[in-house]
Structures are given as C-alpha cells and as structure tokens.
Amino acid sequence: MTLREFIRDTNYSINRKLTPAVKWVFFANILVWIVENIAFAPFGLDDWFLWLFAQNPTVSYRLITAGQYALRVNWLCPLQFFSYMFVQLNFWHLFWNMLALWFFGPPIEARLGTPAFLKFYFFTGFCAGALHGMLAPFFYGENYFMIGASGAIFGVLLAFAIFYPHQQVFLWFILPIPSRLFVLLIGVFTFASLFQSGGSGISHLTHLAGLGFGYLWIWLRGIFSGAWLFNSDPRPFARRYGRRGGDRDPFA
Hints:
The protein is built from 10 helices and 4 strands; from the N terminus they run αααββαααααββαα.
C-alpha cells in the first residue's frame, strides 16, 4: 500500500466514524496539544502559553501602595472563554475529553446539523467558561488558570441524554445503563463535588455549568428555532423561517 492509499483509506475510515464538526474540533484539540508540546514546552514557555490561551482570572486586585488596591481586568478573557476549550493539561486530559466527543458528538451533530452543532458546542463551552471566569476569582484569586474542553463536552453529554434517553451506555466501560441515568449520575456527582474540600484541580463548576447551559440551549431552541444561534445557517445574524420536516425537538 502506498502512502497516498494509506492516507485515503485512513481518511475514509475517520469520515465513517466522525461527523464534520466533531472531526474539526477533535483534530483542532490534537493540533493545539502538539503545537504546545513542540513549540512551547521544550523552551520553557508553558507559562506564557497558558497566560495567553488558558482562562486566567477575569478580574483581580493588585496592590499599588500600602493598603491600596486597584482592580485589574484581564482584557484577553473574551478570547480565552473560547481558547481554553482547546488547551489540555496533558495527554490523558486530551484523551478522555476527545474519547467522549468521539462517542457522543456524532449522533448529536447528525441530529442538529453541522452549523447548529458548532453553535451548541461553542455556546456551551463559552458560557461555562464565562461563568467560571466570573465566579472563580472570588475563590482562587490570581492563583489559577482553567483549561480543557470538559464544559462543552458535558453539554454534549446532556444533549445525548435528551435526544437518545434510552440508548445504552457503559458505566465504567462495564455496566450498561440508559444514557439519561448515566448523565443524571454525572450531574449528581458533579454537584456533590462542588462542596468537597481539597484541591482536586478539577473545575466542577465548569462541568455543572456545561450541563446547565447545554439544557438551556436546547430549551431555547424549541422556542426560538428560527434564530441564528439555533438554526442550521452558518451565516452570522441570518434568520430562517418555516422549514418543513426534520426531527421534532423534544422541547417543541
């Protein structure tokens, strides 16, 4: 087999398993991880990379004179509410997030369509990150950064449970349970983890926000299906009316 034939067959196999938007997000995450570990980490530039692309405190205070503080605003935060979704802590962080996207993303994209799925994914991830960015400075001050696709991934899990509630998924890769029960257990565990003490390094707030904003997007789509944020038109600010056919939304 020639290299060209290998690439063609590999691309065909990937296209059979991954829908377009899932494939773009999947490989974008891998590409960012490779770039970070080739162009930044070997030269000791990890902190600079995280300062630029990870979610850093949205607002914080800095001491200017004895007893006087000034408010410091992170003007990169609008960009970071998107970019943090593509920065992963290590290989296993990347692996588990992308594995969940691989399993649960394609059915949702097939249901919503590629443009609507991308809007759903980025809306969920952006809002989950923004909520974390507004609340985290009160708890962590300046000593944190937040990365990972988990906020958006949790939104995808929530959508899967709504659209395919009886689909069997494997808890711990062993026990088959309905997807709605699977996501319910995840939600309960995540909520309980908010009140646990100790520095796990996991942003349970972002995970829970991903579930919440995923539900909000689907609920609003049932009411404002013609609005650009919820329809299948990729053009910004476009509107669409009266499309016939298609799947019925569970909230319509």
